[in-house]
């Protein structure tokens, strides 16, 4: 009987840097798709992606791919055939898990029946769509080009196409947002019954139009207490709808946690493809150039478009495992950390644990360390306690 080759688990992120219009709060690497379609730049980018995938063929052949996440930008802003061809190429090179999760980010108003047919044919089985808020005035204020009605139309089209695993994005802490806005969003979630919800607090990123408006004083944000009240309302309100928090910003029905994002939070291996994509493999972290021209040029020369690479030493990897793991409601397993890093966790972090327990920020059992509700609000303070000098 031939010896079976052990395949290494791998998750893949693919960055599609095109949107119909850039949101006012977004600092991701993205460009208006219309500016690139005119001279064939979109197709050229996907040809570069195909080349990058080919250069990783050796790695892919030895891997069991358990999740693929196609993000951006707005991947649904481009022709569906491009997405389909990428997944088919990966399928020809790698071994796909029987339970593989393939997620595509979409925005309302960018879907067509033809695109959905391409997605279904390629094996996409999870859609993540940005709702953000049900207040259309707020949507306009943050630069979103859809309305709540547009969202509903797209949501219904996805369901009709047969994709049941839908995730919605919500935002809180928006300019002028109220508790009533959060209640309305929760109410809509209860009607739609998605399998997953991601809820993020607005962060004003330097260099964005929203940052400029904030600096000028033309917008005001909810104060810290109101922002926290919105967060706790989301936690409790979604739980009442059967969508339970499993990570600081993520909620799901039973067994519908994001497999791909769990790879990040459990500090496991992932490969990033596309402009500005990041990877973590074999104790190395590396990232691609953020310039589309440089990305394509390097690949045309047969070179990977990596511009930064760093070795992750054991102490850094341990800290990341603790920090990322504590984001999960289930917390981190002390036994697993002890075995993986050859440490005695309770001894190594005795002072940190004493301080955190005294402040009511963590719960410690024989094997599990996790955040309290108070610890979730002050999570960054908790993480710093485990950082070594």
From TrEMBL:
Keyword tags: 4Fe-4S, Chaperone, Cytoplasm, Heme, Iron, Iron-sulfur, Metal-binding, S-adenosyl-L-methionine
InterPro entries noted in UniProt: Aldolase_TIM (IPR013785), Coproporphyrinogen-III_oxidase (IPR034505), Elp3/MiaA/NifB-like_rSAM (IPR006638), HemN_C (IPR010723), HemW-like (IPR004559), rSAM (IPR007197), rSAM_sf (IPR058240)
Transcription regulation in keyword set: no
Domain Radical SAM core intervals: 4-244
Domain of life, per lineage: Bacteria
PROSITE patterns (alphabetical): RADICAL_SAM (PS51918)
NCBIfam families the record matches: hemN_rel (TIGR00539)
Protein name: Heme chaperone HemW
Organism: Fusibacter bizertensis
């Amino acid at each position: 009987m031939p010896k079976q080759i052990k395949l290494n688990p791998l998750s893949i992120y693919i960055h599609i840097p095109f949107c119909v219009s850039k949101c006012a709060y977004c600092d991701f690497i993205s460009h208006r798709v219309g500016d690139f379609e005119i001279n064939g730049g979109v197709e050229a980018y996907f040809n570069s992606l195909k080349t990058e995938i080919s250069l990783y063929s050796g790695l892919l052949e030895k891997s069991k791919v358990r999740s693929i996440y196609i993000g951006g930008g707005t991947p649904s802003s481009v022709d569906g055939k491009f997405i389909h061809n990428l997944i088919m190429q990966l399928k020809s090179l790698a071994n796909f898990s029987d339970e593989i999760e393939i997620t595509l980010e979409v925005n309302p108003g960018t879907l067509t029946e033809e695109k959905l047919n391409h997605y279904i044919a390629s094996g996409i089985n999870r859609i993540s769509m940005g709702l953000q808020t049900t207040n259309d005035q707020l949507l306009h204020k943050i630069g979103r080009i859809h309305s709540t009605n547009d969202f509903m139309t797209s949501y219904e089209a996805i369901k009709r196409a047969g994709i049941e695993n839908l995730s919605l994005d919500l935002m809180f802490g928006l300019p002028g947002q109220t508790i009533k806005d959060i209640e309305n969003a929760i109410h809509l979630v209860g009607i739609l019954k998605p399998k997953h919800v991601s809820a993020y607090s607005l962060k004003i990123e330097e260099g964005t139009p929203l940052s400029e408006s904030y600096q000028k004083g033309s917008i005001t944000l909810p104060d810290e207490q109101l922002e926290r009240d919105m967060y706790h309302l989301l936690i409790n309100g979604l739980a009442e709808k059967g969508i339970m928090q499993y990570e600081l910003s993520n909620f799901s029905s039973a067994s519908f946690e994001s497999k791909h994002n769990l790879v990040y939070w459990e500090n496991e291996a992932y490969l990033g493809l596309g402009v500005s994509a990041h990877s973590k493999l074999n104790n190395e972290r590396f990232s691609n150039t953020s310039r589309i021209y440089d990305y394509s040029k390097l690949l045309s020369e047969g070179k990977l478009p990596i511009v930064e690479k760093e070795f992750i030493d054991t102490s850094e990897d341990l800290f990341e495992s603790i920090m990322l793991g504590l984001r999960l409601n289930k917390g981190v397993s002390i036994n697993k950390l002890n075995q993986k890093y050859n440490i005695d966790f309770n001894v190594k972090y005795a002072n940190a644990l004493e301080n955190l327990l005294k402040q009511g920020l963590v719960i410690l059992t024989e094997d599990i360390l996790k955040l309290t509700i108070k610890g979730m609000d002050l999570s960054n303070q908790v993480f710093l306690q485990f950082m070594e000098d």
